[in-house]
C-alpha cells in the first residue's frame, strides 16, 4: 500500500502494521501505571485509524514540567518517579521493552493535590523481546537512547532512558539539549 508524504510516494503498509502492533500490545496490558486502551476508531469512511486510550488530564509530563506556573514538590516528584518505575517494571515483566521512554511519553494527572498519577503511554516503538536479546534495529529518541542500544545486547535499555527522565524530573532541564546529534551518538559509542 502506498500513500503520500511531503509530496513523495511512500509505503504506508509499514505504518499500518506498526499501528496494529501497538494496538495489540496495548490491548493486552492492564496496569495502573500504563495508559488504558479502549479500542480503535476510523476517522470517517476510508479515514485514518486512531487508538482510543485513557485521557490523562494534564497531558505529558514534559508539558507539565514546561509550565512555569506549575511547581512539583519533592514528594510528588518521587511519586511520579515511582509510578513510572512500576509501569516500566510491569512492561518488562511482560517482556516488553518500550524503547522510547521519555517525559513526552509519560502522561500525568495532577488533579489530586496529594497524589499525582503517572502512566506510561505511546508504545508505538515498543517491541516484545525475543528470548533475552532485544531485536528490531535502533529505535527511540536520541538523547534518551541507551549506549547499549548500539549493540542491541541488553534488555535494560529502558533503565537508561528512565535515568534521563529522572534527570528531567529533578532538574527541569533536558540533558544534552545543547549537543548536536552526532555528539550524542559519539558519546553513546564511546560508552559501549
TrEMBL record:
The keyword Metal-binding does not apply. Residues 1-192 form the Protein kinase domain. Transmembrane segments: none annotated. Keywords: Kinase, Transferase. One of its GO terms (molecular function) is protein kinase activity. The keyword Transcription does not apply. Pfam families: PK_Tyr_Ser-Thr. SUPFAM superfamilies: Protein kinase-like (PK-like). This is Putative serine/threonine-protein kinase SIS8. It comes from Vitis vinifera. The gene is SIS8_10.
Amino acid at each position: 500500500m502506498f500513500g503520500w508524504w511531503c509530496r513523495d510516494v511512500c509505503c504506508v503498509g509499514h505504518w499500518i502494521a506498526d499501528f496494529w502492533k501497538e494496538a495489540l500490545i496495548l490491548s493486552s496490558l492492564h496496569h495502573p501505571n500504563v495508559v488504558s486502551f479502549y479500542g480503535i476508531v476510523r476517522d470517517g469512511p476510508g479515514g485514518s485509524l486512531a487508538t482510543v486510550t485513557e485521557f490523562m488530564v494534564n497531558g505529558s509530563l514534559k508539558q507539565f514540567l514546561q509550565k512555569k506556573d506549575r511547581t512539583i514538590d519533592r514528594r510528588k516528584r518521587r511519586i511520579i518517579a515511582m509510578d513510572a518505575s512500576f509501569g516500566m517494571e510491569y512492561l518488562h515483566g511482560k517482556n516488553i521493552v518500550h524503547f522510547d521512554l521519555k517525559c513526552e511519553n509519560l502522561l500525568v494527572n495532577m488533579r489530586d493535590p496529594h497524589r499525582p498519577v503517572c502512566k506510561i503511554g505511546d508504545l508505538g516503538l515498543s517491541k516484545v523481546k525475543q528470548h533475552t536479546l532485544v531485536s528490531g534495529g535502533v529505535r527511540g529518541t536520541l538523547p534518551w537512547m541507551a549506549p547499549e542500544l548500539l549493540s542491541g545486547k541488553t534488555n535494560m535499555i529502558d533503565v537508561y532512558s528512565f535515568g534521563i527522565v529522572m534527570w528531567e524530573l529533578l532538574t527541569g532541564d533536558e540533558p544534552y539539549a545543547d549537543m548536536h546529534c552526532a555528539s550524542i551518538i559519539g558519546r553513546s559509542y564511546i560508552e559501549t
